[in-house]
Amino acid sequence: MTIPGKRIAVLSPVAWRTPPRQYGAWETVAGNITEGLAARGWDVTLFATRDSVTRARLHAVVNRGYEEDRDVDPKVAETLHISEAFEHAAEFDLIHSHYDFMALAYSRLVKTPVLTTIHGFSSPRIMPVYEKYRDGYFVSISDSDRAPGLNYLATVYNGIDLSLYPLQQSNGGSLIFLGRIHPDKGVHLAIETAQLSGLPLIIAGIIQDRNYFQQQVEPHLNQSIQYIGPVDVAGKNALFSQARALLHLNTIPERFGLVLAEANAAGVPVIAMDLGSCREVIEDGQTGFLVNSVHDAVRSLQRLAEIDCTTCRLRVQQRFSIETMVTAYERVYQTIFDLEAAKRS
């Protein structure tokens, strides 16, 4: 549904490259939207780090992500990056921001409408910004992750590039954890599940909380429970090929959970804590199991034979592909263009 003559700016974060080499969920989604729009013929410009990779136009003032180059000051990089996009606002018909609350502060200074995809509320302390700009245009990434009073136009689930995650032909013998090493993600619960079940566990991801890693993860590492560090797409697929199941025993409500869709795309069942969006991404008993405790997770391991890998992938194709996501955003864009036209008439 390309709208002739309409120009879109996609504002990606600059913590990491777009798409990221390893970790970087927001950059992944911003990149997937950009590529999906470009593939459909949209006139789209990606505002991201200079080393980003895209078929669209790339506009950059920050060379490398501040998480990848410690010589870069995060606040300086973000200020230069966001202001650059808004200084060029008149060149676009819509700015699609993936920059959390910070870009909202610029939104009333330009005539170009701004759509903000809210990838999660990191803290109650950021809410005053959303309250001030509550009448802007917002999209949530799950029905569960919404704040009251904001002008939501839709929920659009994140979409992944299925070509990156081929269906694995056979189930492996290990449990796997993929994600931030942080209490929110429940790595310690994954370890407890592995210990109680007697199954090996492979842990991969960036260490975001060093004390947590040293106190609740590192002491349990041995031949059966391994930490291998952050992984790229090839590394994820290597893990999926070894996986009996992905453990995602989050301790706080999940906002979306890209890794849940990635694992299912590869045909890997997911055992997830029933918090937040997990029940929107995982179909209980069909693509994995929703649980409420470690003991539930251990019991679910006995039911993995009930999960069909092709069913897992089909559901991702239908609900969490780039194509499905971009189609939904095209509808949101049209709604915004119609609303803006009505304001001018």
Structure in words:
The chain has 345 residues and is an alpha/beta fold. The chain folds into 2 domains: 7-159 and 322-344, Glycogen Phosphorylase B (Rossmann fold, 3-Layer(aba) Sandwich), CATH 3.40.50; 162-319, Rossmann fold. It has helices spanning 25-39, 74-87, 104-107, 127-132, 187-197, 210-217, 233-242, 258-265, 278-281, 294-301, 309-319, 322-344, and strands at 7-11, 43-47, 57-59, 94-97, 114-118, 137-140, 152-155, 174-178, 201-204, 225-227, 243-248, 270-273, 288-291. Helix 1 (25-39) packs across helix 12, helix 5 (187-197) packs across helix 10 and helix 8 packs across helix 11. It is globular and about 65 Å long. It starts with 6 loop residues before the first strand and ends with a helix.
What's the short version?
The chain is an alpha/beta fold and 345 residues long. Helices cover 35% and strands 16% of the residues. Strands 3-2-1-4-5-6-7 form a seven-stranded parallel β-sheet, with helices on both faces. A six-stranded parallel β-sheet has the order 10-9-8-11-12-13, with helices on both faces.
